[in-house]
Write a structure and sequence with these properties.
By secondary structure, this protein is α/β, with parallel strands linked by helices. 28% of the residues lie in helices and 28% in strands. The strands form seven sheets. Strands 3-1-6-7-11-10 form a six-stranded mixed β-sheet, with helices on both faces.
């Protein structure tokens, strides 16, 4: 399968690096992420940029993102495409000659390049967008125009554009279209995508564990709804950033605000092909809600795909649908899984996921690539590259 290179840096936007990175891995691509002056295994800090009613985006600390390759050792000829996330990192990366040289190489070979939000500042500095149709975060418009590009207004903010080998988007809400156009630029063929998926979430759901699966599946053309008890379409839930920072358990920081897409009271298992249950702290209280539990039971009785990750399995245990099943979860949930009558599968490594019949389980957000792959396979979607 094709190989994709990501150029990232400190305070790249949290979603804008992880959603496309894990989505592409889940689709079956290979991907590496590099940062100048850093090596494989080093981390970059990410920033959460959100829209909270101010005149510009707010910023909070995000997850730590682990690099997979050493910048000084990568060769552009080893990769088929380039992705540049946004955030604040592109401001300083656009002054790095080694970054600009790498970007120019991809353009000289006419390989697919996908850039989002402030990532286009790097393209402008590399002098590769003159005469091209380009969008970006709206505040980047003066730079994009000064670089000789034709500005494409991102109206709505979810709009993306493709100009030959170049895909550009304005911000992380555009990821579904961004991923879809990137697959097109890569020559990918995606079939059997007319699927509907329901995601069951709540306040302080883990930030990645709700957004990555949602946008990854939307990028394939799936219809995805996200609901929360006692809330309606357009309401928001708060998310939590759970990370592994050397403590005996995960740390927590505030995440993005996530907008719901449907009314909980109006959904039923009959209208969907699969159910996804993210983790975080939300499952603790959702497992007390009888309407939530009955919804889970309805999907299980109908023998539809149920995919749950991390602490999401607390809800499955409370619903009584795990007895006799083989599954995993976040390791601290193991006693709950065993008490529910399931056979525990050790998530070693933590990225490991498992399928038992219609049940898909994972241990934590590092497992998203496998988690997404299992869901796509279970729903019969095929992804191939010419």
């Amino acid at each position: 399968m094709r190989k994709v290179l990501f150029i990232v840096g400190d305070y790249c936007e949290d979603y804008e690096v992880m959603v496309p990175f894990q989505s592409l891995l889940g689709y079956g691509f290979q991907a590496d992420a590099v940062c100048p002056n850093k090596k494989a295994g080093d981390v970059v800090r990410t920033a959460i940029h959100d829209f909270e009613g101010d005149q510009t985006y707010s910023e909070k600390r995000g997850h730590n993102f682990v690099l997979t390759a050493t910048f000084a050792e990568v060769h552009a000829d080893d990769y088929d495409a380039l992705v540049i996330p946004g955030g604040r990192a592109p401001e300083y990366l656009s002054t790095d000659d080694s970054v600009l040289s790498l970007v120019r190489h991809f353009f000289s070979k006419k390989k697919p390049v996908a850039s989002i939000c402030h990532g286009q500042l790097i393209l402008a500095a590399a002098d590769v967008i003159k005469g091209r149709k380009v969008t970006a975060y709206p505040a980047c418009r003066p730079v994009i125009q000064a670089a000789g590009a034709t500005w494409q207004a991102p109206e709505p903010i979810t709009s993306c554009f493709i100009d030959e080998n170049l895909v550009t988007g304005a911000a992380w809400p555009a990821h579904p279209e961004f991923l879809g156009l990137f697959l097109l630029a890569m020559g990918a063929n995606v079939s059997n995508t007319e699927k509907k998926v329901l995601v069951l979430a709540g306040d302080f759901v883990e930030d990645y564990e709700v957004m990555v699966p949602v946008q990854a599946l939307q990028g394939l053309g799936y219809k995805v709804d996200v609901v929360c008890p006692n809330k309606k379409a357009g309401d928001t839930i708060r998310t939590a950033v759970h990370d592994f920072e050397g403590d005996q358990t995960y740390s927590e920081k505030p995440g993005h605000n996530f907008s719901l897409t449907a009314d909980f009271a109006s959904v039923s298992a009959d209208g969907y092909d699969a159910l996804v249950v993210p983790g975080g702290r939300a499952p603790e209280y959702l497992s007390l809600d009888e309407q939530v539990l009955e919804l889970v039971r309805d999907f299980t009785r109908a023998e539809k795909v149920v995919a749950s990750i991390c602490h999401g399995q607390q809800i499955l245990a409370a619903a009584g649908v795990l007895k006799g099943k083989k599954c995993t979860a976040y390791p601290a949930v193991k006693p709950t899984i065993l008490l529910a009558g399931a056979e525990w599968l050790e998530p070693d490594p933590i990225s490991k996921c498992f399928t038992d019949g219609n049940l898909i389980t994972g241990a934590a957000w590092p497992g998203h690539p496998e988690f997404i792959s299992h869901i796509v396979k279970a729903l019969g979607t095929k992804i191939s590259v010419e």
